[in-house]
Structure formats: C-alpha cells, structure tokens
Specification:
Blueprint: H1 2-9, E1 16-20, E2 27-31, E3 35-41, E4 44-49, E5 53-56, H2 60-66, E6 72-76, E7 79-82, E8 88-90, E9 93-95, E10 101-103, H3 106-117
Antiparallel strand pairs: 1-2, 3-4, 3-7, 4-5, 6-7, 8-9, 9-10
Length: about 130
Amino acid sequence: MIENELDKCSHPGSDIAFFKTGERGKLSRVNKQEILYFESARNYVNMVTSEKGTLVYLTLKEIEKIFRKDLFCRVHRSHVINVTKIQKIVGNTINLGEGVQVQMGNAYKAELLKFLEDRTFLTGRI
C-alpha cells in the first residue's frame, strides 16, 4: 500500500509534501526543508518543524520509505531527522539548532556517521 502512496507524495526534487493529520479529512502541506525531525507517537508520527509539531497518520517505517531519496535518516527507534539541520554531534546527542536535541541510538549510529563521513572535508596535512 505505501508503495502506491510513494508515487503520489514524494517526488525527487519536490520540496512540498502533503500529510494526513490526526484530524479526520484534513491534509497539511509542508515544505520538506522546514522539517527538523519525525518522532514516533504510537499510531501516529509527530512531524516537528521550527514552528510547530503536527501529528500525521503514518509510521516511522513509512516515513523512512517516503523520504528515502531525500536527506532524512533514522537515528533512533523513535526518530528520523533531516540531516541538513544537523549543527553538531556530541557523543550520542544530535543538535539540530534552535535548541532542539535528539538522541542517537547505538544501532543507528554507524549508518549516520558513514553518511556524514562521505560529506566531511578533511585536510591531507595530518
């Protein structure tokens, strides 16, 4: 079922997505660049932007599939983050700016660090 939805709501290069919210019959439009992270909330997912959180009727597994072509990465069993929002990582704490911090689970750490390593500039002088 989710594979059919992928064609509708997430096209590579598209910055806009629509989500069914917890309110019956309501769709919310969001610019993907504004999303800080998604957080599991039972049968829903809390989509957090710098302005607000919105409950959407999806699971984190579905969020991962929908955003697999975008710069979103699962970092905890309860969190999928927008990696473009990472300001710094200290230990297992990811700072997304604007005072927002998300914990990284050990099971997801290697994948995120590999992703970041491929985008990290290093000097050849060491």
